[in-house]
Design a protein that fits this description.
This protein is α/β, with parallel strands linked by helices. It folds into two domains: 275 residues, no CATH class; 272 residues, 4-Layer Sandwich (Nitrilase/N-carbamoyl-D-aminoacid amidohydrolase). The chain is built from 17 helices and twelve strands. The chain has a six-stranded mixed sheet, with helices on one face. A six-stranded mixed sheet has the order 6-7-8-9-10-11, with helices on one face. Helix 7 packs antiparallel against helix 8, helix 9 packs antiparallel against helix 10 and helix 9 packs parallel to helix 17. The chain is globular. 51% of the residues are buried.
Length: 573
């Protein structure tokens, strides 16, 4: 099969234009390609856009040779520092566009208390994407350093960028947000392969499948013979096989799936949709607490039922804007609310005061605390209360959000007047590792995840014990009605597939949901909707391959692709 001559010549012409384009034009093309690539992520899920944008990245690296040699005319490996640097610049602009438009919603958090933080908004929405763009810059530079002719260079690109995505998810505090592999996780059938290789493994598949077709078509026009032309078009076949296999596996897995439920468990998830601007106002504490109680006592239709038949009530992250363990009145209210044998699972804050007496008002020690006063250790926690209002189990968050829950060099930055978005003096304290599995009456072994802890592949379950349910409490109210909360929700769905465990998600302003171990949504409350969701609890599956091996499979795929790329180069030579 031969590509239509017009398409092939047009692609070849575009590559030739990039070869001679000025640096500013190349930067603009890279930025535009990266920006458009975000459309492959939630909530748009327009993955086919990558059929265009990833080949553009390939051609930018092809034409990075400052001496005018393109991939087609210089098929052998040449280590050229100038070309490597130029490829790195293209990769950075691609990444900058990708992260600017993929994470613009972070700026919303700086408007919650605009009088304090709005001045930081421009820096937040540019410096973070600029920093994250360095991972793509390094990937493009590394790819160019090992660039190969023909389809092998697509494999090199996949290896470099998938590796960079893994590093992005692990170095410093890690931020694996909108990893490229998520492009293959919609609709439900698409996310099933995450149970085999995780989202990093899917990143390898996505880059090869989406970059190969147009790259091959562009190669076809310069092929010297029919045989070479057919070989050049092999990228189209490879993409079809990869994507076809991916979707066929997912469809078959879902076709064989059942909807088994844990017996005698009835959940009620409360979504209060409290305005983040009011969340921590001292005069709103009682009102917010009573809102949670009132919603808890109602059915989804709004009828008061006093939690009749409910076995487990779930509230979102930091649901009570005070320290409940230091508020006997709140504990009594919880006991009065819960029917016999019921449990409350809630996000809450707790403080360790190092022997000092608890504060009289159970207030959070935010800004304005007395200078020199002993600073308690404050934890962002998941707590389980029994029907008598006693603490039955708890987990303290171990993966804190930088600049949100703590500051790097906290004391030094506080000394010059800076503070994190939560404005907690001294920042939150990291909980004990590894993340524990909690024993909660009536439930399978429970793993708690707080806020963005659900975005980290292979780091959800720590230790040998395996949970039967993941409870993710979060507050996405910081980010308004933007793409951020929707992306966060989708990543939680993929964690369910990777681990083969249902996810119960309670979010202050949404999206709250019950997700089965195939990533299917059993029920949900939409963004900014106030109400409750009643549901049973799906039963966990036996551990998928990814839950057993983590990223070892991803590492194995990297090695195999490296061998294939090297073999392809020798054959072309």
């Amino acid at each position: 099969m031969v590509a239509p001559a017009g398409i092939a010549r047009g692609l070849a012409g575009a590559v030739a234009w990039l070869q001679d384009a000025p640096s500013l034009a190349r930067a603009a093309v890279a930025f535009a390609a990266g920006s458009l690539s975000v459309l492959a992520m939630a909530p748009f899920f327009l993955a086919p856009i990558l059929f265009l944008t990833l080949p553009v990245l390939v051609w930018l690296i092809d034409t990075a040779d400052v001496n005018g040699r393109t991939e087609a005319s210089n098929p052998s490996f040449v280590f050229d520092r100038g070309a490597i640097g130029r490829a790195g610049v293209a990769g950075w602009f691609f990444g900058f566009g990708y992260f600017v438009f993929g994470m613009f919603w972070i700026g919303e958090a700086f408007l919650v208390e605009a009088e304090k933080f709005a001045w930081l908004l421009p820096a937040a929405v540019t410096l973070l994407p600029a920093g994250l763009g360095l991972f793509f810059a390094a990937a493009a530079a590394a790819a160019r350093a090992f660039w190969r002719p023909g389809l092998s260079r697509v494999l090199v690109l996949a290896i470099a960028f998938a590796s960079a995505e893994w590093v992005r998810g692990h170095v410093f505090t890690g931020l694996p947000w909108n990893v490229i592999g998520y492009a293959l996780t919609y609709p439900d059938a698409g996310m099933q392969a995450a149970g085999l290789v995780g989202v990093y493994g899917l990143t390898l598949v996505a880059i090869i499948a989406f970059a190969a077709p147009l790259t091959s078509l562009a190669n076809a026009v310069s092929a010297a013979s029919d045989g070479r032309r057919r070989a050049a078009l092999s990228g189209v076949v490879i993409a079809a096989v990869l994507l076809g296999s991916h979707w066929a596996y997912g469809a078959a897995r879902l076709a064989a799936a059942t909807r088994d439920m844990v017996p005698d468990v009835v959940l009620r998830i409360v979504q209060p949709s409290v305005d983040q601007r009011e969340k921590w106002q001292p005069d709103k504490q009682g009102q917010i607490f009573e809102l949670h109680v009132a919603l808890s006592r109602q059915t989804p239709a709004g009828k008061v039922d006093d939690l009749a038949g409910i076995t487990h009530l779930v509230w979102p992250e930091a649901a009570m804007p005070f320290l409940p363990l230091e508020s006997p009145g709140a504990l009594d209210r919880i006991a009065a609310m819960l029917p016999p044998e019921a449990q409350l699972i809630t996000g809450a804050l707790r403080a360790e005061r190092h022997g000092a007496a608890p504060a009289d008002d159970a207030a959070i020690p935010r800004e304005g605390a007395a200078a020199g006063a002993p600073r308690p250790d404050v934890y962002n926690s998941l707590m389980v209360f029994d029907t008598e209002g006693r603490l039955a189990a708890s987990y303290d968050k171990i993966h804190l959000v930088p600049f949100g829950e703590y500051l790097p060099a906290q004391s030094a930055l506080e000394a010059i007047g800076l503070e994190q978005l939560t404005r907690l003096r001294g920042g939150f304290t990291v909980g004990a590792k590894p993340r524990p599995i909690l024993a909660v009456a009536g439930l399978p072994p429970l793993l708690g995840l707080i806020c963005y802890e659900a975005i980290f592949p292979a780091a959800v379950v720590q230790g040998l014990a395996r949970p039967g349910v993941i409870v993710n409490v979060t507050n996405d109210g910081w980010f308004g009605n933007t793409t951020g909360p929707r992306q966060h929700f989708h990543m939680a769905r993929v964690r369910a597939v990777e681990e083969g465990v249902p996810v119960v998600r309670a979010a202050n302003n949404g999206i709250s949901a019950v997700i089965d171990p195939y990533g299917r949504v059993e029920g949900q409350l939409g963004l900014n909707e106030r109400g409750v969701l009643d549901s049973g609890l799906p039963r966990a599956l036996s551990a998928p391959l990814y839950a057993e091996t983590g990223d070892l499979g991803f590492a194995l795929l990297l090695g195999i692709l490296a061998l294939v790329a090297a073999t392809g180069t020798r054959r072309n030579g």
